[in-house]
Design brief:
By secondary structure, the chain is mainly α. Helices cover 48% and strands 0% of the residues. The chain has a domain of 132 residues: Cytochrome Bc1 Complex, Chain D, domain 2, CATH 1.10.760. The protein has seven helices and no strands. α3 packs across α6, α3 runs parallel beside α7 and α5 crosses α6.
Length: 192
């Protein structure tokens, strides 16, 4: 029994020493352009899933109904704050997708199956070491819920919302510059 305990202690010390050497000598690739290993991805996903499952609101149903007004407001919020990284009307796959580690989920191209409350929690609080910021204090809770409502219905939008979404995503044509007004000549006063 004593040999087993010593073996466990030695194994743990070797693992700790290996981790220390890897970190101390800069052998662990930290660049966002280095894809995470399968073990790193599995552990990170497990940590996120378990933590959010424990802290997401219950019930996790979206308090807003998919009306045209709510979906359009959600489209505005999404295009303004989310589309650059998660894809949008202009490009379902964002160019930023692979610029983060892990890669950014493309929410319009592949609608998440997660419950609305789970997505709301991640939107509100962000996810450390992924580039996903906390939107708390930037967006209201209602704006977050409506953006999630929009994402969840983005593949079956009513025509009016689809058209509004395209208009939101299409930058307005830049108006030609207005030339400065010509200085007005002051009337010449007649000398008396």
């Amino acid at each position: 029994m004593r040999g087993f305990i010593i073996g466990v202690i030695v194994t743990l010390l070797v693992i700790a020493l290996g981790a220390f050497i890897t970190i101390h000598f800069g052998l662990f690739p930290i660049g966002a352009d280095n894809p995470p290993s399968s073990m790193e991805r599995k552990l990170a996903n497990m940590a996120v899933d378990n933590y959010v499952d424990r802290h997401a609101p219950v019930p996790s149903d979206n308090p807003f109904q998919p009306t045209s007004d709510n979906l359009t407001e959600g489209a505005h919020v999404y295009e303004q704050h989310c589309a650059l990284c998660h894809g949008g009307a202009a490009a379902k796959i964002s160019l930023m997708r692979t610029r983060f580690s892990p890669p950014v989920p493309q929410l319009i191209n592949r609608i998440p199956h997660d419950e609305d409350g789970w997505l709301w929690w991640v939107t509100k609080h962000g996810t450390r070491m992924t580039g996903m910021p906390s939107w708390d204090g930037v967006l209201t809770d209602d704006q977050m819920w409506k953006a999630i409502l929009f994402v969840k219905h983005s593949n079956k939008l009513p025509p009016d919302v689809q058209m509004a979404w395209q208009e939101i995503a299409t930058p307005a044509e830049a108006a030609p510059p207005v030339p400065p007004a010509a200085p007005q000549k002051q009337p010449v006063k007649a000398k008396h």
